[in-house]
Amino acid sequence: MFRPGLLALGIILAPVAAAPLAHADEASDFIAKWDTDHDGTLDQAEINKAADAKFDALDVDHEGTLSKKELGNRVTQADFAAVDKDREGTLDKAEYQAIVAKRLQAANPDKDKTVDAKELRTPAGRHLLELLR
Description:
Blueprint: H1 4-34, E1 42-43, H2 44-58, E2 65-67, H3 68-71, H4 77-83, E3 90-92, H5 93-106, E4 114-115, H6 117-120, H7 123-132
Antiparallel strand pairs: 1-4, 2-3
């Protein structure tokens, strides 16, 4: 017996069931894009290249700094205040890199100085990816 309600429910729930896979693919895709030595991980230098590219993309006014508006929700107020040493209310590339380094350290619990896809799928890894995507 055909039940249209069950079919509709299956169609609605199918994308929800696939959502966790999106994180897996996102982490792997991100590594594939930035892994210049093709070792399946990202080290600080590779992360910095990704961060530089994201910084440049966010710097819409090309002033060499990012305002809170340009950063959107990528950086917490506490992170911003911790690295904005000159208290200008903007972050330069070095200050942005400092936040990236802090998040990389948090996403790397084994302290091997690289992150793999599994580490990028953790809450700390996703927090790092927020700065880089």
